[in-house]
Every structure is written in C-alpha cells, then in structure tokens.
Specification:
InterPro entries: CHAP_dom (IPR007921), Papain-like_cys_pep_sf (IPR038765). The chain is an alpha+beta fold. About 20% of the residues lie in helices and about 25% in strands. The chain is built from three helices and seven strands, in the order αααβββββββ. The longest helix has 20 residues.
C-alpha cells in the first residue's frame, strides 16, 4: 500500500477516534423534560409536555393520585409555554412526592435533577396546584404551578390502588 494511502487511513482513524472520544456521554447530554421522562419511565407519549395529558387518553390510565413510576403533567403557562413533566420516584404523603425531572429552573437548563420534592397545595388535595422544591433558594417558594394530574404506566397500580409510601416503610 502506498505511503500516502497509509497516512490517509491513519489520519482518518485518528480523527474518528478523537471525535468519538470527545463526544458527550448520555450523562453529559443536555436534556429537556420530555425525552428525559420518556427515557426513565414506562410511558411513551408524544408531543410537548403540556400535550401529554390529552395524548395519553385511551392509552394510559390517568388520575389525581401519585404513584411511583407515574408522570406528573404540568399545564402550560406564560412562563412554561411547553408545560413540564416529572417522573414520580416516591410518594411521601398524600401531599408530598419525590420526582426526577430535567430542565427545571433558571441555571438548570438541560440538567437532570433527581430526588426533588413537590408538594400539593390545591384546596381539594387533588394535585391540580403544586409547588416545586428549588435547591438554589432551599425552599418551595411562592410560585404555584398548575397540573393536570398523573399518567400511570401500564404495569403500575391504578389510581384507585396507588399506595402511599411513608419514610422508613
């Protein structure tokens, strides 16, 4: 093989190797809430986050009680024009859940946050108004976020049988 072809092959191999080595890993990739929720839940719904509630109709059970593995769907607002979705990791009480979600809050664009508290502040205890823990201020703050409710994966308990898991048991 001529030297020029050998050098060309070596150059291509080095360039490909450098590109692969510098490519961001899945952990380092920027996430928005929708692809993140799809990747860590058993729920495959299309559309922007605010559209999940309607788009899940006839495919998944939906309801107002949180269950581990369910997805909480936030309505779109002026400040959240695409809505938001968060995956329930744990139900702490009838008014508090722990979620994992992506792309929440200023300075968190594209980042994944795990173990985040959300509290129900709705007057009827139906999870239609919530507050989300925001670590930069160390509080739930005063902002209330409207939600539709929870979409349940097909293999999870139904809304009627969703169990509350208390800390330590």
């Amino acid at each position: 093989m001529p030297k020029t072809i050998s050098r060309w092959i070596l150059t291509v191999c080095l360039l490909v190797g450098a590109t692969v080595a510098s490519a961001p890993s899945a952990e380092a990739a920027a996430w928005s809430c929708v692809p993140y929720a799809r990747s860590v839940s058993d729920i495959e719904v299309s559309g922007d986050a605010w559209q999940w509630w309607q788009n899940a109709s006839g495919i998944y059970n939906k309801g107002q009680r949180p269950a581990p593995g369910s997805v909480l769907v936030f309505k779109k607002t002026r400040s959240m024009s695409r809505g938001h979705v968060a995956v329930v990791r744990q139900v702490v009480s009838n008014r508090k859940i722990i979620v994992d979600h992506a792309n929440w809050g200023m300075g968190r664009r594209g980042k994944v946050d795990t173990g985040v508290g959300i509290i129900d502040v709705s007057p009827n205890n139906d999870w239609t108004e919530t507050r989300v823990w925001y670590s930069p201020i160390g509080d739930y703050g005063n902002t209330t976020y409207p939600t539709n409710g929870f979409i349940y994966p097909k293999r999870s308990p139904s809304a009627a049988t969703a169990r509350i898991v208390r800390p330590g048991g």
